[in-house]
Amino acid sequence: MKKPKNRSERIEWITRKLGHRVLIGYAKYTDREVKQEFELMYKIYKDKPDYDVTTEPSPTCVVCESEVEVTYTCLCTAGCILDKDDPAYEEHKRLYENGN
Fold first, then answer.
1. Is the distance from CB of 95 to CB of 78 less than 8 angstroms?
2. Is the dihedral of CA 80, 86, 92, 96 positive or negative?
3. Cα 76–Cα 81–Cα 84 angle in degrees, nearest 5
4. pLDDT in tens, 9-65
């Protein structure tokens, strides 16, 4: 791949090398700051493999030392439905609307 030439390409390259968690930090950077940061990182990471989320360790609880499991909660007691295509959507919506 050829060296990125503009802000968008540079941020995309950095994200590909370091993962999406770094993306938000570049929102406040000027074009010049992005270019300076990219030039430093390019020298270090150009020959390294792209970031792979599957190799990132999961967070561990400091009390019980088990892997942390992320869960979502919402105001309806039926449980969170995050997609209207979820098979349980209609039933959960009906229960919520009926106050159950």
1. yes
2. positive
3. 125
4. 999 999 999 888 888 888 889 999 999 999 999 999 999 999 887 777 777 888 888
pLDDT in tens, 74-98: 777 656 887 888 888 888 888 888 8
Please, what sign has the CA dihedral across residues 60, 66, 70, 75? negative
**DSSP state letter for 6:** S
Sort 19 into a burial class: Cβ within 10 Å, 0-12 / 13-18 / 19+.
Answer: middle
Q: Where are the alpha helices (DSSP H) in 1-100?
A: 7-18, 31-45, 89-97
| Distant-in-sequence contacts of 17-26, Cβ < 8 A, 24+ apart | 17/41, 17/45, 17/48, 17/50, 17/51, 18/45, 18/51, 19/51, 19/53, 19/56
Residues 7, 79: Cα–Cα separation, whole Å: 41
Look-up of token digits 């995050």: 82
